[in-house]
């Protein structure tokens, strides 16, 4: 039997006192109003403080220094978590482009939650909203409407944007573990930060020749890796609607861009995706590098995922530019 759906509660008013706003940050929120409620223009600076602190934490690199092992961990965590975002937060949770078991779904939902891009329900709900209203006045992160900075990061920090619209993710909200990750979206990042610090301390004790430490592993593995991951991800909101080539005539400004595709493991083939978002593959041609698709194919061969939705033959017939 599926988990019972909890009653939705509206978010508190945006002008509430600091305690109310901090409580909503810790406990999440559920949006119930019209679509316009998701398009806000006021940054909630109190709830944005952890996000700002995440960036400031990168400056500690001048005190902790660098070591090959710390950089290796940062790169590995970037790759693993980027895949969790692109394959699961995006192609699976947002678009249902393939199927998997509840266990694999839960594992990659938790890895995605470690990216500090909020919970899987929040991510999918906002992304589905974006596709419905791409580059219109109801799109919360259209660069054509509100400029680069707003589309890149400003919208993410508004009081309205913190809420999750459960109406858009009724297929996902029945899973208790996904609701928990959404409500307590800071829990996994905190656990990751603690684990990285502990790893650095352990390596300093067991293998001092590696030249790392708890603070150094925390800065490189968590702060730097997470900040780079975040900004790489949101280039698809900001830059992929400005720079690149348009193969398909869509009702938005989406573009295909090789460099962004490399940075985001295939998400840069954004015009392809906006024309046919249901495919598990976003690089429609063989030469369009899509690392997420390649890994999903390997996972399919291992029986971890299945029913990868392909690109139908008719799609390429609609291309206005080959």
Helices and strands in order, then pairings?
Elements: H1 18-27, H2 45-56, H3 61-64, H4 68-94, E1 99-100, H5 102-113, H6 120-132, H7 143-146, H8 148-152, H9 176-183, H10 187-206, H11 214-238, H12 258-263, H13 270-275, H14 291-301, E2 305-306, H15 313-317
Antiparallel strand pairs: 1-2
Helix pairs in contact: 4-5, 4-6, 4-11, 5-9, 10-11
Would you kindly provide a written description of the structure presented here, covering whatever features stand out?
By secondary structure, the protein is mostly helical. It has a domain at 49-245. Helices cover 52% and strands 1% of the residues. It contains 15 helices and two strands. Strands 1-2 form a two-stranded antiparallel ribbon. Helix 4 crosses helix 6, helix 4 packs parallel to helix 11 (214-238) and helix 5 (102-113) packs parallel to helix 9 (176-183). The model is unreliable at 1-16, 21-28 and 32-39 (pLDDT under 50).
């Amino acid at each position: 039997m599926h988990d019972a759906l909890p009653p939705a509660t509206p978010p508190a008013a945006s002008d509430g006192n600091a305690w109310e706003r901090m409580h909503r940050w810790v406990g999440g929120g559920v949006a119930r109003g019209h679509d316009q409620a998701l398009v806000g223009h006021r940054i909630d600076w109190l709830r944005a403080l952890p996000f700002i602190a995440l960036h400031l934490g990168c400056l500690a690199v001048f005190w902790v220094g660098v070591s090959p092992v710390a950089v290796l961990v940062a790169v590995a965590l970037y790759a693993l978590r980027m895949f969790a975002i692109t394959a699961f937060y995006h192609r699976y949770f947002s678009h249902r482009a393939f199927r998997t078991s509840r266990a694999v779904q839960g594992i990659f939902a938790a890895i995605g939650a470690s990216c500090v891009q909020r919970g899987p329900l929040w991510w999918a709900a906002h992304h589905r909203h974006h596709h419905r209203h791409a580059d219109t006045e109801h799109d919360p992160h259209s660069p054509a409407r509100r400029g680069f900075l707003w589309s890149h990061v400003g919208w993410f920090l508004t009081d309205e944007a913190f809420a999750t619209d459960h109406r858009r993710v009724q297929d996902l909200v029945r899973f208790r573990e996904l609701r928990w990750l959404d409500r307590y979206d800071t829990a996994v990042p905190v656990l990751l930060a603690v684990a990285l610090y502990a790893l650095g301390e352990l390596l300093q004790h067991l293998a001092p020749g590696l030249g790392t430490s708890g603070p150094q592993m925390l800065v490189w593995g968590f702060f730097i890796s997470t900040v780079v991951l975040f900004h790489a991800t949101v280039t698809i909101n900001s830059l992929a609607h400005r720079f690149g080539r348009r193969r398909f005539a869509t009702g938005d400004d989406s573009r295909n861009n090789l460099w962004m595709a490399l940075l985001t493991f295939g998400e840069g083939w954004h015009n392809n995706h906006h024309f046919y978002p249901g495919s598990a593959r976003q690089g429609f041609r063989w030469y369009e590098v899509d690392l997420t698709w390649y890994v999903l194919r390997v996972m399919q061969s291992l029986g971890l995922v299945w029913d990868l939705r392909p690109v139908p033959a008719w799609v390429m017939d609609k291309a206005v530019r080959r």
